[in-house]
Amino acid sequence: MRIIDQIREMRCWSEAGRRESNHIVLVPTMGFLHEGHLSLVREGRKRGDRLVVSVFVNPTQFALNEDYTAYPRDLERDRGLLEKEGVDVLFHPPVEKMFPKGSQTTVEVERLSPLLCGAFRLGHFRGVATVVLKLFNIVRPHVAIFGSKDYQQLQIIRRMVEDLNFDVEVVGSPIVRGKDGLAMSSRNAYLSQEERQAALSLSRSLRKAESLVRQGERESGRIIHAVRAEIEKGPLARVEYVSLCHPASLEKVEKIHDEALLALAVWIGKARLIDNTILKA
Ligand code: AMP
């Protein structure tokens, strides 16, 4: 596996690959890899013949009061995991090369960004969309893989690619969970044992909603109430939002007609956790 930290070298590698008609796949990550990330890597393997994984903790997607500095990092461990998966390139650019002094151009996906997580993390999706577009411009992948754990992010990237006519296929990959049901996340590293136990209420609440819908419930208000109640049973969880919305526009829905996205964000101690499921009527 080649480790590239220079933008120019990354670009040359991709250009050479394209000249040889290689199909290039990119999996963008912030590192501290877990099985969720590795599932994207394995999906990527199937979809092309050259696989690039970027590890870049993007400062522009963290607000000032957020955990940019504390965000867990372990490049050596990530490198070992990616090597085992047969990744071709680990792209790990330095922050000052990705965002040199004076850079001022950003990408704003106007209507999707302020919804759901965007209402609480101001500027977050501007940072995400901008860094992903930069990674696309540097790596020039044919295919890019994103997890549906970050459902809103996936929709925003799809919208951006469509709106800006970027020639890349965006692939969404399912949420990977631990045996206990907790969606894998680098931020789970912040949880104590007791907090991890409390965090199980997130996936439990989603299963509860699915069961209500199976029993015929269609009213968003009642489903959201039941989800909140399940999470708030424990003293350690603080709900940031629970929302039922249209799976593409992410606009709130009052009732489930065909299918709807149930998305939530919950604080457990220092960890802000998100999870979601599609509810089908
Ligand atoms: P992150 O390193 O958290 O920015 O995530 C990098 C990519 O991995 C994103 O596309 C995430 O949606 C995806 N990802 C993170 N956790 C999971 C998970 N539990 N299941 C599937 N994909 C995930």
Describe this structure in words.
With 281 residues, the chain is an alpha/beta fold. It has two domains: 2-173, 3-Layer(aba) Sandwich (Rossmann fold); 186-276, 2-Layer Sandwich (Pantoate--beta-alanine Ligase, Chain: A,domain 2), CATH 3.30.1300.10. 37% of the residues lie in helices and 20% in strands. It has eight helices and nine strands. It has helices at 7-19, 35-47, 75-84, 95-98, 124-139, 151-163, 193-214, 220-232, and strands spanning 2-4, 24-29, 50-55, 89-91, 143-147, 169-173, 237-245, 259-268, 271-280. The strands form two sheets. The protein has a six-stranded parallel beta sheet, sandwiched between helices. Helix 6 links the parallel strand 5 (143-147) and strand 6. The chain is globular. The model has no long low-confidence stretch (mean pLDDT 98). The structure holds adenosine monophosphate. Residues 29-30, 36-37, 39-40, 146-147, 149-150, 173, 175-176, 183-186 line the site of adenosine monophosphate.
Give the SSE map.
Layout: E1 2-4, H1 7-19, E2 24-29, H2 35-47, E3 50-55, H3 75-84, E4 89-91, H4 95-98, H5 124-139, E5 143-147, H6 151-163, E6 169-173, H7 193-214, H8 220-232, E7 237-245, E8 259-268, E9 271-280
Parallel strand pairs: 1-4, 2-3, 2-5, 3-4, 5-6
Antiparallel strand pairs: 7-8, 8-9
Helix pairs in contact: 5-6, 7-8
The structure holds adenosine monophosphate.
Essential attributes:
281 residues, alpha/beta, Rossmann fold, 2 domains, six-stranded parallel β-sheet, three-stranded antiparallel β-sheet, 37% helix
